[in-house]
TrEMBL record:
<protein>
    <submittedName>
        <fullName>Maltose/maltodextrin import ATP-binding protein MalK</fullName>
        <ecNumber>3.6.3.19</ecNumber>
    </submittedName>
</protein>
<dbReference type="InterPro" id="IPR015855">
    <property type="entry name" value="ABC_transpr_MalK-like"/>
</dbReference>
<dbReference type="GO" id="GO:0015423">
    <property type="term" value="F:ABC-type maltose transporter activity"/>
</dbReference>
<dbReference type="InterPro" id="IPR008995">
    <property type="entry name" value="Mo/tungstate-bd_C_term_dom"/>
</dbReference>
<keyword id="KW-0378">Hydrolase</keyword>
<dbReference type="GO" id="GO:0055052">
    <property type="term" value="C:ATP-binding cassette (ABC) transporter complex, substrate-binding subunit-containing"/>
</dbReference>
<dbReference type="Pfam" id="PF03459">
    <property type="entry name" value="TOBE"/>
</dbReference>
<dbReference type="InterPro" id="IPR012340">
    <property type="entry name" value="NA-bd_OB-fold"/>
</dbReference>
<dbReference type="GO" id="GO:1990060">
    <property type="term" value="C:maltose transport complex"/>
</dbReference>
<dbReference type="InterPro" id="IPR027417">
    <property type="entry name" value="P-loop_NTPase"/>
</dbReference>
<dbReference type="InterPro" id="IPR005116">
    <property type="entry name" value="Transp-assoc_OB_typ1"/>
</dbReference>
<dbReference type="InterPro" id="IPR003439">
    <property type="entry name" value="ABC_transporter-like_ATP-bd"/>
</dbReference>
<dbReference type="InterPro" id="IPR047641">
    <property type="entry name" value="ABC_transpr_MalK/UgpC-like"/>
</dbReference>
<dbReference type="GO" id="GO:0005524">
    <property type="term" value="F:ATP binding"/>
</dbReference>
<keyword id="KW-0813">Transport</keyword>
<keyword id="KW-0067">ATP-binding</keyword>
<feature type="domain" description="ABC transporter">
    <location>
        <begin position="4"/>
        <end position="234"/>
    </location>
</feature>
Length: 334
């Protein structure tokens, strides 16, 4: 259970097509992340799968059955949004029970499922509280609990963590991954945060303007981005993309070097530049280098703390075999 297949799916709002014909296979048990800049169509695609939007053309099938015009409630999927939409006057237990109550499920069965969900989500001690007495992370867990008890074929998450502060986001990210390990249910997770995509996904779908730029595992995308867009989007700090005569030396229109694939020296190296800002994180140092004559600003990532300050002359050398090449259309050259 939990195979989802999109075949030539399109979506237009009025005469604006936001999703051109798109094919996508999501396999049972996979953790799939849709990632891309704001407005690229991530939520629209998720809502098409959920049935909250109608497709303009094309077909969606779930577990081999045509679901294209099936009502959302009949698709067997559970959606978790950024806003938790809990009932404030109901206890956590009642909030989680709500969909089962609506479905007329026996109360003993309800309670068993609530207890199992609460255990999986570390909510056992909070079942009698009201949402107003919970932290943001706990509320999000209740919303997930309400989805779990429906035993969906797949969970659909639309930026579920964006209301949470940075530390809580990391904690919840791990909890959702743990939950996926436990349940082994298909999960589709929308985010614009490429770090979330890299850390959580079995399979990342990179979208731009409704078009799938690449589908692959996090490390496939990191090591072999199909085009300049994916190269620039995946990885933090961003890959340095160099055009012009330096790229031509490598028979490419653009060459790309990730910040972590540059070595530095104060005396010698392939490219000379001047240190702009050096960010000392302790674990790493990010150095932003100007006046290389290659691009506006190059970024270098060095493990650990190294002495580098504004105005220093610095020499950069790319690590052999770690250079990416792109042609005039921005496509990867093998
Ligand atoms: N109901 C609607 N009517 C008209 N246009 C819409 C509607 N919903 C979305 N769009 C447009 O479709 C495109 C994709 O929107 P969508 O919400 O899917 O983007 P997104 O990738 O989820 O962005 P974000 O990261 O900001 O949430 C956008 O250009 C948006 O303006
Ligand atoms: Mg969105």
């Amino acid at each position: 259970m939990g195979n989802i297949s999109l075949n030539q799916v399109t979506k237009s709002f009025g005469d604006v097509q936001v999703i051109p014909p798109l094919d996508l296979e999501i396999n049972e048990g996979e953790f799939v992340v849709f990632v891309g800049p704001s407005g690229c169509g991530k939520s629209t695609l998720l809502r098409l799968i959920a049935g909250l939007e109608d497709t303009t053309s094309g077909a969606i099938s779930i577990d081999g059955n045509d679901a294209t015009s099936l009502a959302p409630a009949k698709r067997g999927l559970a959606m978790v949004f950024q806003s938790y939409a809990l009932y404030p006057h109901m206890s956590v237990r009642k909030n989680i029970a709500f969909p089962m109550k609506m479905a007329g499920i026996d109360e003993t069965v309800q309670n068993a499922k609530i207890d199992a969900a609460a255990k999986a989500l570390n909510l056992t001690d909070y079942l009698d509280r009201k949402p107003g007495q919970l932290s943001g992370g706990q509320r999000q867990r209740v919303a997930i609990g309400r989805a779990i008890v429906r035993e969906p074929a797949a969970f659909l998450f639309d930026e579920p963590l964006s209301n949470l502060d940075a530390a809580l986001r990391v904690g919840m990210r791990l909890e959702i991954m743990e939950l996926h390990e436990k349940l082994q249910t298909t999960m589709i997770y929308v985010t614009h945060d490429q770090v979330e995509a890299m850390t959580m996904a079995d399979k990342i779908v990179v979208l731009q303007a409704g078009v799938i730029e690449q589908v692959g595992s996090p490390l496939e995308l990191y090591h072999a981005p199909r085009n300049k867009f994916v190269a620039g989007f995946i990885g933090s700090p961003k890959m340095n993309l160099i055009e012009g005569p330096e790229a031509a030396k490598y028979d490419a229109t653009t060459i790309g070097i990730r910040p972590e694939h540059l070595t530095v020296s104060n005396t010698e190296g392939m490219w000379k530049g001047i240190v702009g800002v050096a960010e000392h994180l302790g674990s790493d140092t990010f150095i932003h280098v100007h006046e290389t004559g290659l691009m506006d600003m190059m970024t270098v990532r060095i493990t650990g703390d190294i002495a580098a300050k504004h105005g220093d002359t610095i020499y950069l050398t790319p690590v052999a075999d770690q250079m990416h090449r792109f042609d005039a259309d921005g496509l990867r050259i093998a």
